Amino acid sequence: PEYPKNYEQTLKVISQIKQMAEEEISDIDLLVLPEYSNCAGMSDMEEIKSHIEKHNEDYLFTLISAAKNNHTHIAVNMVIREDSDYFNATVFITNQGEIKAIYKKTHLAYPEKYSMGLKEGNEAIIIEVDKVRYSFATCFELYFSEYFEYLASLTPDIILVPSYQRSEDSRVLEIQVNQRALDCECFIIRASYSMGEESQKGGFSQISSPEGMAILKAEQKTGLFVTDLNPVQKRLRPLAHGLAKLSSREIIESFRRPELYRQGGHLVRNIHQYTYPRICAHRGFSHACPENTIPAFLAAIAAGADEIEFDLRVTKDGHIVVCHDVSIDRTTTGKGNIADLTLDEIRKEDAGVYLSEEWKGVRMPTLDEVFESCAGLIMMNIHIYDPGEDGSVVKKISELSKLYHVDHMIYLAGEKKVLEYSLRYAPHLERACLEAQQSEEILYYAKLYQCQRLQFFRNVSDDMIRKAKELGMICNLFYADDEIEAEEYIRRGIDTILTNKASKMVWFLKNK
Asked: Looking at the DSSP assignment, which residues form a beta bridge with residue 79?
């Protein structure tokens, strides 16, 4: 559309979009609309609130009906309200008239954050529809190369970018989209507004290919622009001069050295390079450090463990702390059950001196602190004893995993109630079954709760391991601190060994 200069023109843009969606997209697979398509040209937030209260329901209903009637997917960016918060959101409507995803812009521009008071999203999204993988960015986010590097790690086929960018040089916009498409090895569809035929600013809706070439450019023209593309097309190039061609991203990922340019960041460890068998540090490096503490987890990382395991409990005032026991009696200087104590009361007690005076001053960590210290640096096996009221613990883990972009580097372990809430509220996170660990019933529950993993006790039989493998499940063992024992369990088919002696077992595994 043409960028509106007043409210009357804003309403005209909305009318044009609705009419086009209803009448002109019957032979189109995917329609992408520009940023703020439900309130284009508006900047006063109170006016926007009043406007969307009046128009959003009808606007969205029209697009949902058009998507279903024309069998067309529609990606529409709009201001939406959730409770008392307002978001810049891209809504993906499938050709069945279903809302598949709502992406909330994660990098807000200055006016959005400070003048309009919009709320930021905290989650990058990848969805698959008709075997095509879509991800999302919005306008200002095109400037964040590291964000697009993360999107690239999600392996999208198409990234949808509704935009304004009214003040940016049009030449820069074209270069920027081409470069992001080349780096991410996918198509990028950027939809914006015409700023006028003579303008050298903004506009330039375009589609760029994985080769970094614009295959469609609207420049400053208005209307419905259509092109054909093969969404799963990738760019192949030689591994080196004279060698075989590979996917460009595959080459990049194989030679990446994040330790040089992302100091301690959340994507340092490439989980795709992990192999089995693995060593999981039980309660961290618990043989040498106070168990379930930050020093124990960081020591396990330093020792080269593949995973850490830790246990969660909920305090009287609803905080999630890391502790194996019901009470703090054994591992701290205090007394009492965690459920009967506040976080402040627990944090007053020392959680290191039970092991030795050298560890004096260590405190029991919260779940937030573990993520802050370890997320992205190591796989986390999170043992949940109590899922909390209405799955509050599961919800909190899911929230943190999205905040730190480590969905692929954690899994939730627990018994029936925990697995039920995990499947309900965090189905995207892997689950490890701990129900009925000492009997074959563990296989039944693992399958029932769609677990990807299960954790056996030391009495596991070869038949149980075989059946778990037939179900495609990863097999953990609790536990082995002896190399000969561990080697035998691995020979029998165990994938991950939980151990209290991380450095000893890592050395054994890497040198056997």
From this structure: 88
pLDDT tens readout for residues 420-478: 999 999 999 999 999 999 999 999 999 999 999 999 999 999 999 999 999 999 999 99
Catalytic residue among 73, 287, 319, 324: 324
Amino acid at 402: K
Which residues pair with residue 188 across a beta bridge?
159, 208
Length reported for the chain: 512
Strands 85-93 and 73-82: antiparallel
CB 201 within 8 A of CB 195: yes
Backbone angles phi, psi at 248, to 5 degrees: -60, -45
HEC per residue, 150-192? HHHHCCCCEEEEECCCCCCEHHHHHHHHHHHHHHHCCEEEEEC
Secondary structure (3-state) at 401: helix
Look at residues 116, 112, 102 and name the one whose alpha carbon lies nearest to residue 140: 112
Question: Catalytic residue at 324?
Answer: yes
Report the DSSP pairing between strands 410-414 and 379-384.
Answer: parallel
Query: Two tokens at 501?
Result: 């002696």
Q: Is 489 exposed, middle or buried (0-12, 13-18, 19+ CB in 10 A)?
A: buried
User: 32: which strand partners?
Assistant: 75
Residue from 282, 287, 319, 383 carrying the catalytic annotation: 282
End-to-end CA distance of the chain: 65
Q: How far apart are CA 405 and CA 409, in angstroms?
A: 9
Flag whether the pTM goes above 0.90.
no
> What sign does the dihedral 376-377-383-385 (CA atoms) show?
negative
Which amino acid, one-letter code, is at 458? R
Amino acid in position 265: G
Beta-carbon contacts of 279 under 8 Å, excluding residues fewer than 6 positions away, are 304, 305, 306, 307, 496, 497, 499, 502, 505, 506, 509
Structure tokens at 133: 């993988």
